[in-house]
Amino acid sequence: MTYDSDNVFAKILRGDLPSERVYDDDHTLAFMDIMPRADGHVLVIPRTAARNVLDASPAQLAACLATVQKVARASMTAFEAGGVTIQQFNEAAGGQEVFHLHFHVLPRHEGVPLRPPGKLEEREVIAANAEKIRAALKNA
């Protein structure tokens, strides 16, 4: 399988599609999922092309995981969460839908299940949740 430079996350990286960004550095970008399964659901991606963990370089994986950890800590603070779920899917059979390496960071609360996939959230809610995470990142 080859990398498709027209995937939705590549378009977000180029600025062709909007996103609610919460963190970025030279190697990664973290932005809000528009169909969140939990309040504060963030996606972390490398700035460079990688289809998934199967073809990513060790440097891409290391950069992504460092950002995942930073965002996970901030998300737990921002949402007063008791835990965090980190998800990562590879190829269609593994549940991957967008073929650009990405990690899901979901703040979790005891006894609160994840919402079903596929429901768009209101932009105002996503923006407010993003601001909470950005504030937590600033205070980290």
Please provide a written account of the structure.
Helices cover 31% and strands 18% of the residues. The protein has a 5-stranded antiparallel β-sheet with strand order 1-2-3-5-4. The mean pLDDT is 98. It is built from 3 helices and 5 strands; from the N terminus they run H-E-E-E-H-E-E-H. By secondary structure, the protein is α+β, with helices and mostly antiparallel strands. It has one domain: HIT-like (HIT family, subunit A), CATH 3.30.428.
Helical content band: 25-40%
- The helix/strand order is HEEEHEEH
Low-confidence runs (pLDDT<50, min 5 residues)? none
Total number of distinct structural domains: 1
CATH architecture: 2-Layer Sandwich
Number of helices: 3
Sheet-strand content, in percent, reads 15-25%
User: What is the CATH homologous superfamily assignment?
Assistant: HIT-like
Strand adjacency order, main sheet? 1-2-3-5-4
CATH topology: HIT family, subunit A
Quick one: CATH class?
Answer: Alpha Beta
Question: Nearest-angstrom radius of gyration?
Answer: 14 Å
Number of strand segments: 5
The computed structural class is: alpha+beta
Task: Give the helices and strands, then pairings.
Blueprint lengths: L7 H7 L6 E4 L3 E5 L9 E5 L11 H21 L4 E5 L15 E6 L14 H16 L2
Antiparallel strand pairs: 1-2, 2-3, 3-5, 4-5
Helix pairs in contact: 2-3
